[in-house]
């Protein structure tokens, strides 16, 4: 994808006019201070040519502004909220709105591949040094190095930045840091989806019981329990009479080990960047902040935040991660059935399978398919819908329409069709975006169920390759089941309102990033989650 740089006439012409005006004033000051030596010949006004040029530039700027205002005035308007057809693509057939949508994508959504590539390479170098230092360092504080957790030595880059659908700025990344278990310890993962009494938010979680690894020597269970007791005491909790690996205890060790590893490489990184580590507590993984150094004169001097997520490999590219990803209820201990403990819950990461699925779709897509561009615009539509909401409503809106939910919507629509066909080319961009919005709204209103693309019924197992036994036997996971009916209905109404007002929103918030944004009216800022217009 090539990089396009456009000249912003709104800034260029005022700057040129101001510069010429300043030159005219400077000329007159110098002419007045020069006295008789600066007197021009008879009948000649030396200041007239520069003054004429300045006036012509000013008139050109005024004409361009008038042309822009006339063009915006005659663009077709958006459909009314009370129209009979909630989703109508007729306005996307108008050339004016196609221009608006394309302009908004270029100025507000699309990332420069050059900047994104530099950012990913910088993150890879910094995280690589940190992980290698963690592997060389002391594996833990448990007596006996063979019974301690340790870094495996590699890291796995996941998320939208590595799947070509990140938007706006390349300033946040997700990285999995695989951990190495002691040789005497093996895991027996189990999905909680089949638990008879369990809140929907926990049905995608896993628990990992300890078990003895297969041994040709046939060691007895009593000896194994005695030998791995230091590891179990440091990293495990009791769940229904059996020792389970604790995500909370592993996360706590991971954060402290990262701090020690960072202290060993901080000095070597000082010449390139400033690095700090912010612990995430027991609810979030730690975040590595990479700040540009004052002596760094590179072309992409961005401040970046990298979430470092501890992961335990289950096999076939599937990882258990700590802590489980949101959404979770506000009081999880009260929602868990008797015998289960929140510290033992793990989330599952299937980023490798999802990347394989996207590659499989790309191989079968028609040339010029715009499905990733539609996903980027769907994320931008979500961000536009959050404008005008208070902090609590905006947080709830972002949790329901998370980036993972929106990606799953795209995968579900594409898998229903088999592959992106001719209908997913650039000429049908508005229609394809409308199809995604309509399917998402139907999922919010329970007309369709938005299953996890790997754990769902049928899923995409044939396209992504083999899966571990724990995932093959897992129950289907509905990504929106954790939210109650009222929250989903409000989100669906807000989504419809945002879609119907899309032309006005593109006009109001489109354009170059450095232009000032007009804040929403006070009446809009005080309206609720449903009634407030973005």
Automatic annotation (TrEMBL):
<comment type="similarity">
    <text>Belongs to the ITPRIP family.</text>
</comment>
<dbReference type="InterPro" id="IPR026250">
    <property type="entry name" value="ITPRIP-like"/>
</dbReference>
<keyword id="KW-0472">Membrane</keyword>
<keyword id="KW-0732">Signal</keyword>
<keyword id="KW-1133">Transmembrane helix</keyword>
<dbReference type="Pfam" id="PF20266">
    <property type="entry name" value="Mab-21_C"/>
</dbReference>
<protein>
    <submittedName>
        <fullName>ITPRIP like 2</fullName>
    </submittedName>
</protein>
<feature type="domain" description="Mab-21-like HhH/H2TH-like">
    <location>
        <begin position="371"/>
        <end position="451"/>
    </location>
</feature>
<keyword id="KW-0812">Transmembrane</keyword>
<dbReference type="InterPro" id="IPR024810">
    <property type="entry name" value="MAB21L/cGLR"/>
</dbReference>
<dbReference type="GO" id="GO:0016020">
    <property type="term" value="C:membrane"/>
</dbReference>
<feature type="transmembrane region" description="Helical">
    <location>
        <begin position="48"/>
        <end position="64"/>
    </location>
</feature>
<dbReference type="InterPro" id="IPR046906">
    <property type="entry name" value="Mab-21_HhH/H2TH-like"/>
</dbReference>
